[in-house]
Amino acid sequence: MKLTLEKDQQAYAAGIYTPHSSSYAINNFGGLELKRFGMVLDAIDIKQQDIRR
Predict the structure, then answer these.
(1) How far apart are CA 9 and CA 1, in angstroms?
(2) In this entry, which stretches build a coiled coil (predicted)?
(3) What is the DSSP-derived secondary structure letter of residue 21?
């Protein structure tokens, strides 16, 4: 996913993120979509032991 930052916004640190619930909107057809502008991301804290491959 390509993210754009607002002017003077600090870059996100490397990691795994999920969109915050405020980043979703209902479109004209009743479908769920991500907001084009003003998307907020939340970092996900994944411990190394939780990753099983």
Answers:
(1) 18
(2) none
(3) G
Cβ atoms of 17 and 43 closer than 8 Å: yes
User: Which residue reads 């939340």 in tokens?
Assistant: 42
Nearest CA among 35, 37, 30, 31 for reference residue 5: 37
The model's pTM is: 0.60
pLDDT in tens, 1-49: 777 788 898 888 888 889 999 999 999 999 999 988 888 889 988 775 4
Q: What is the C-alpha to C-alpha distance for residues 53 and 41, in angstroms, rounded to an integer? A: 26
